[in-house]
Specification:
This is DNA repair photolyase. There is one protein chain. By secondary structure, this protein is of the alpha/beta class. It has one domain: pyruvate-formate lyase- activating enzyme (Alpha-Beta Horseshoe), CATH 3.80.30. It contains 13 helices and twelve strands. The protein has helices at 17-20, 91-95, 103-111, 133-137, 140-149, 167-173, 190-196, 203-215, 235-247, 264-275, 280-286, 295-311, 336-339; strands at 7-9, 25-30, 38-42, 48-50, 61-63, 66-67, 96-100, 121-123, 154-158, 179-184, 221-227, 252-257. Strands 4-5-8-9-10-11-12 form a seven-stranded mixed sheet. It has a five-stranded mixed sheet with strand order 1-2-3-7-6. Helix 6 (167-173) links the parallel strand 9 (154-158) and strand 10 (179-184). Bound molecules: iron/sulfur cluster.
């Protein structure tokens, strides 16, 4: 590989304590092309994850080739999963990326089992499958190929414009199995997007990605999520954002309020302290009793957005999520809630 000679072995002191305990750690890698990011390459025994039976997700299986995400969204509710590796929910989540380097091979093996029933598989429910690391590791073509070869429907949700690379492959895949593509875009202003999601492609680049998907002949759903109370929930912003999404040719859109899990909530509140200090007491009140915004807020948001979705022709097929009770089951996969809108 191009960074041969720069590798640090699993025994190196730079390996984080939790990773040393992780079965399958092959090596830890730094490369000048990814300044500030450390890749921990692991060989996984399996990458096909069953969604807990109690989940309300409309899919039962997921594949996540990475843990951690260099897109670094401050509100990301996958952050807490990094603590299982003795890493923190903040900078470690953004920069210490676990890469399941054998994901395509072990997935193909699992899908070949006679017991596999070819249920839909959602890609990128935990972290973004087209984050920057994918440009180097190229795991997604093999994963998509394994799913198609086994006759398994698939969905992808991403903020990553690297998806363009695989559009020809996904277009071919759609001739054989159902393929659902979703782009996550919740902020139209590029300056605000850079503050909230510093590692992501710009809103303009993601809108261009929507266009490219549609030009391939595939449908494209846009997830306007998470909507951040008092930051991105004005009628003017939502109207302009949905207009831009419609203009890019999106097939449909869904809108969802922010979900701030413990740990993630603290990280996001730090961001608020820095950039919108006047909102901190409001957020403590709104999210003081749980991870979800109260039903009243979500109902208010749904009513605000419904006519906008209709006006921009994005309501067909979109689903405004009804208010929910705080879930009892822990750690629903972070982007899984968003993925739900793809089916
Ligand atoms: S919200 Fe999605 S894209 Fe952003 S850091 Fe989390 S997993 Fe990555």
């Amino acid at each position: 590989m191009r960074w041969d000679g720069q590798e640090i072995t699993a025994e190196d002191d730079a390996a984080l304590p939790g990773l040393r305990k992780m079965a399958g750690l092959v090596r830890t890698v730094r490369t000048p092309e990814f300044a500030g990011i450390v890749f921990h390459e692991v060989t996984a025994r399996s990458v096909l994850n069953r969604v807990p039976a109690a989940s309300r997700m409309p899919f039962r299986w997921t594949v996540n080739p990475f843990r951690g995400c260099s897109h670094a969204c401050v509100y990301c509710y996958a952050r807490s999963t990094h603590t299982y590796l003795d890493m923190d929910v903040g900078a470690d989540f953004d920069s210490q990326i676990v890469v399941k380097v054998n994901a395509p091979e072990v997935l193909a093996r699992d899908l070949a089992k006679p017991s596999w029933t070819r249920e839909q598989v959602a890609l990128g429910t935990n972290t973004d499958p087209y984050q920057r690391a994918e440009g180097r590791y190229r795991l997604m073509p093999g994963i998509i190929g394994a799913l198609v070869a086994s006759g398994t429907p698939l969905s992808v949700l991403t903020k990553g414009t690297l998806l363009r690379r695989d559009l020809p492959l996904l277009g071919e895949a759609a001739a054989h199995v159902p393929v659902s593509l979703g782009i996550s875009l919740a902020v139209l202003d590029a300056d605000l997007q850079h503050l909230l999601e510093p590692g992501t492609p710009s809103p303009r680049a993601r809108l261009d990605l929507v266009r490219a998907i549609r030009e391939t002949g595939l449908d494209c759903h846009v997830m306007v999520a998470p909507v951040l109370p008092w930051v991105t929930d004005s009628r003017e912003h939502l109207d302009a954002l949905l207009a831009a999404i419609a203009e890019a040719g999106a097939t449909s859109a869904s809108v969802m309020a922010a979900h701030l899990r413990p740990g993630v909530k603290d990280w996001y509140l730090q961001w608020l302290e820095m950039h919108r200090p006047a909102l901190v007491p409001e957020y403590r009140r709104l999210y003081g009793r749980g991870s979800y915004a109260p039903d009243a807020y979500r109902t208010w948001l749904a009513e605000r957005v419904r006519p906008l979705l209709r006006r921009h022709g994005l309501a067909r097929g979109s689903r405004l999520r009804a208010p929910e009770r705080e879930p009892e089951a822990p750690a629903q996969a972070p982007d899984a809630v968003m993925q739900a809108a793809l089916f």
